[in-house]
Design brief:
This protein has about 400 residues and is an alpha/beta fold. Helix content is about 35%, strand content about 15%. The protein is globular and about 70 Å long.
């Protein structure tokens, strides 16, 4: 894998996964020439998922990947959670095309967004078929279409393409521009904080009181910085929209977190909801952004229930798998499961509370179904009043 065009870590943070941040962005005279050339090329339009993946490939969030996966890497990742060179990498990052007619090995292909705006040029080096059931079973542990990604996969093109990519334009975002940072930019912010240890909290839900308390305790536990890194790409269907969630994160940052050790940055990731494997992937991604630790709660990257009404994964499967591979990812798992003790008005880790003491907790599913879905305001012990007011608006 060609890592010649990359950004070397220059601070006291943990180095990126693989040693360098991949950088696929083209600038200057080469960019101008490539734009003109691309107008002559066959092209394919990227899906929202592929566009998210391309953005994170371009800035090095998926380092050491420097392209959509070729067949050897893809097959090895599906079967063994490793790239073909043995590097741990649990999730395939691929580019499906619905029609391979007109594409030829060794020739260039323009990649465009939903508005047909040019974003990149790929040299097609591989084209290969793939089996949906095999990929779903290997990566997600199921072929049940109740899983949102499995249902989505049925509409993907039947050919994957791979090859060197030159990115001309990152996707344009017009919301919360000041909170959108590349891995290199986040690393620069963290470096200036003076902390070498960083715990990341990657979330696709509103931050409630238990999350807030847990993240603060995690930062204190490692004596480091806290990176709140919400997903604003593709999350689980039915989750609270990212516009609402980011408003919530900003309020909490302004009023309840220590600004000297807490950083908020948005992550344009397309989630797979792959449970344990996804937790490993998130650890790799967060390491590229500078994190040394990752907070993982119950049901991390949980897709919900299968068609029989049973969970796809156990509640602690993600924690267990991430712990097993800490030596390879270099990222330590920080478990999080706080419950509220009404009689004492405080939060405590569930395992430290005697069985005889009544506790209160609400799952993400309960929050979505019993409160947000019905327009019912969550209790004060669960959600700060400012946050409840924002949630009332949706």
């Amino acid at each position: 894998m060609d890592l010649n065009k990359s950004i070397r870590a220059t601070n006291n943070l943990m180095e990126p996964y693989g040693g360098r941040l991949v950088n696929l962005l083209i600038d200057g005279e080469e960019r101008a020439e490539l734009i003109a050339y691309a107008m002559t090329l066959p092209w394919r339009q990227l899906s929202p998922r592929a566009l998210c993946d391309l953005e994170l490939l371009a800035v090095g969030a998926f380092s050491p990947l420097d392209r959509f996966m070729g067949h050897a890497d893809y097959a090895s990742v599906v079967d063994h959670m490793r790239l073909s060179n043995g590097t741990l990498f649990p999730i395939p990052v691929t580019l499906p095309v619905g029609n391979a007619d007109g594409l030829a090995l060794g020739e260039d292909l323009a990649l465009r967004n939903a508005k047909n705006e040019l974003v990149a040029v790929m040299t097609v080096e591989e084209m290969f078929g793939w089996d949906q059931a095999q990929e779903a079973a290997g990566v997600l542990g199921s072929t049940d279409v109740a899983h949102s990604l499995i249902a989505e996969m049925q509409g993907w093109g039947r050919t994957y393409v791979s090859g060197r990519v030159k990115v001309l334009e990152l996707p344009k975002h017009y919301d919360f521009v000041d909170l959108r940072h590349s891995p290199a930019q986040v690393r620069s912010l963290l470096e200036r904080s003076g902390y070498s240890r960083v715990v990341a909290f990657q979330t696709q839900t509103p931050i409630h009181r238990a999350h807030e308390e847990g993240t603060k305790r995690a930062a204190a536990l490692i004596d480091g910085a806290l990176l709140i890194h919400p997903v604003v790409g593709l999350a689980r269907p039915g989750d609270v929209d990212h516009f609402t969630r980011v408003r919530i994160y900003k309020v909490l940052m302004e009023k309840y977190y220590d600004p000297k050790r807490t950083f908020l940055s948005l992550l344009p990731l397309a989630m797979r909801m792959a449970g344990p494997r996804e937790a490993l992937w998130h650890a790799i991604i967060q390491r590229n952004y500078g994190a040394s630790h990752l907070i993982v709660g119950r049901n991390h990257a949980d897709p919900g229930l299968d068609s029989r009404g049973k969970p796809f994964y156990g509640p602690y499967d993600a924690q267990e798998l991430l712990s097993r591979y800490e030596g390879e990812t270099g990222v330590e798992m920080v478990p999080q499961e706080l419950v509220y003790i009404p009689s004492e008005g405080r939060y405590e880790p569930r395992e430290r509370v005697p069985a005889a003491i009544p506790v209160a907790s609400i799952s993400k599913t309960q929050m979505r179904m019993d409160y947000l879905g019905k327009g019912v305001r969550p209790p004060d012990w669960l959600t700060r009043p400012e946050i409840a007011e924002i949630l009332d608006e949706i």
